[in-house]
Amino acid sequence: MRSVAGSDPREIVRRGYDQVAEPYLEFTGPHIPTRLRWLRRAVPLIRPGSPVVDLGCGAMPATRELVEDHTLMGVDLSIEQLRMARRATGGRAALVLADITDFAVRPGSLGAVVSMWALLHVPRDAQRALFASVARWLEPSGVFLCSLGLTDDPGSVEDFLGSPMFFSHFDGASTTAMVGDAGLVVEEADEVEEPDGTRAPWVLARRPA
Length: 209
Ligand SMILES: C[S@@+](CC[C@H](N)C(=O)[O-])C[C@H]1O[C@@H](n2cnc3c(N)ncnc32)[C@H](O)[C@@H]1O
What we know:
Largest sheet: 7 strands, mixed
Helix content: 25-40%
CATH superfamily: Vaccinia Virus protein VP39
Bound molecules: S-adenosylmethionine
Shape: globular
Structural class: alpha/beta
Radius of gyration: 16 Å
């Protein structure tokens, strides 16, 4: 692990996910059941037909399901990931090449925001403002589903599938508390272990009606 001083985190992430696009999708395989389990808990709470945004959508290995009943938009800074998302959704999702922290939609306009295994790449000092934005974008009773970083990591670069990758997060409990501070009601929060032993906090929250 080495410090990120002097490097642009978003450039490290963009280059990394462009480079590992196919291997990452393969790596994701055994982790898809957890994604689907949480997604299927969230789906009954999302207003049918409402717009849903997937932040850091990657190849949409799970959220592609949402395209059947929702207007789905994926946001990612990696063009290779968006190419895979286009394939996965048969071109039916709107795909936006953007940094999550630069993205915005009209307040109250979304039925749900989903973000799986992406926020742990966003510099943690930007995360509180991001949760506040999510709360603003959601319609009343709108749903926020996300997985989070597990430990306290101010910012580091590690090897990920052969490419340097940037990570940054507070521990799960602190980040879950930040979701609540943003005005969202946390309905479920749990730390989930994947088949390869990696663990991640998952949070399902809603904007109050
Ligand atoms: C670990 S992958 C997860 C992809 C997908 N959500 C899934 O469930 O497999 C993280 C994704 O988030 C994207 N990402 C990370 N930081 C981002 C940022 N600041 N803005 C936009 N996308 C970002 C990466 O390019 C990558 O596609």
